[in-house]
Structures are given as structure tokens and as C-alpha cells.
Amino acid sequence: MSRPAFDDIFMELAVNLAKRSHCVKRHVGAVLAKDTRIISIGYNGPPAGTHNCDEEWPETGCARDRKGSCSLALHAEQNAIIYAVKNNANVEGATLYVTLAPCLACARIIYATGISKVVYLNSYAEYKGIELEEGVEFLLRFGVAAERFQGNLSNVTHMM
Q1: 64 has which bridge partners?
Q2: What's the rounded Cα separation, in Å, for the pair 25 and 3?
Q3: How many Cβ atoms from other residues are within 10 Å of residue 4's Cβ?
Q4: What family classification does the UniProt entry report for this protein (predicted)?
Q5: What distance separates the 2 farthest-apart alpha carbons in the chain?
């Protein structure tokens, strides 16, 4: 049996974490890792202790902002970064594995916290129906490596 690459392991974990999301519209997972160690994990959803969209609004999900995004939830990247910072983890130089490319707002947070690389599975631009991968372009412009996952997800039992 061959040993899986860490990129594969971390992305598989992000995919499986996405299954924890209570979002009605999209499930997204994130893993923040540094030096082959997991610093933090996250998935999209409202702040802890508030509500669960799929339970409170199972048919429609929560209210949307003007861009069509959830007005209440934190993105998976935000949850992973917030948890790491709350626990005094040093995220500078870390790699973020996420199942959906970061939006522009998340890209700014990623840059500001010193994360050095983002590996994403699916396109945010395709999901939103927009022309440009704004978050990825922002990261690349300011020196953060960002690339679409090219590895192997053989251990994921069900993709979303």
C-alpha cells in the first residue's frame, strides 16, 4: 500500500469536514496545516451558539445578502482561522486546504494573517457564476501561493 501525500490527506479531511456544515446551499470544509501538522479545522456555518440554518430554515436557508451569500454564516476558512487564533496558534507560513476557492473577503483575511499557501478543490467563480476567481487572484497578486488541488481523493466516501 502506498502512503498518501499530505496534500491528499488534508484535502480529504476538508471534504469530510464539509459534511458537518448546516448550510442549506453549500457545504465547505477547511484544514489549516503547517509542517505536516494540523493547526485548525473549520466548516461553513453560523457562529457557535447561534442557530443551525438547516434546522431553523430547512427549505430556504438563512437570509441572503445583496450578493446572494449567506448573511449569517462564517466561511470555512474564517472558522478555521478564528479557531486557530483563539487558541494562540501561529498561522504564519501555514497552508490552508479548502473545498471551495476563497472569496475575496476570505482572501484578505488569509493574506492578513500570514498564511502562505491555499490549496482549493472547487472554483468559487464557477459556483457563483462570475468570470474571475477574485480571491485567488488577490492572493496571487500579493504573494500568497494559490493552486487548485491536483491530488488524489481516493479515501473520500462521498463527494458533495
Answers
A1: 70
A2: 35
A3: 15
A4: Belongs to the cytidine and deoxycytidylate deaminase family.
A5: 50
Measured CA to CA, the distance from residue 44 to residue 102 in angstroms comes to 12
The residue ranges of DSSP E strands in the chain, in sequence order, are 29-34, 37-43, 95-100, 117-122, 145-148
Q: What is the pLDDT of residue 155?
A: 66
**What pLDDT is recorded for position 160?**
46
Residues catalogued as catalytic: 77
Residues of the chain with pLDDT under 70: 1, 53-54, 56-58, 61-62, 67-69, 71, 155-160
Would you state the pLDDT for residue 157? 53
Domains and CATH numbers, the chain: 6-148 (3.40.140.10)
Q: How far is CA 136 from CA 11, 37, 63, in A?
A: 17, 24, 26
**Alpha-carbon gap, residue 87 to 81, rounded angstroms:** 10
d(CA 58, CA 74): 18
The reported pLDDT for the residue numbered 2 is 77
- Kindly calculate the radius of gyration of the chain based on its CA atoms and give it in whole angstroms: 15
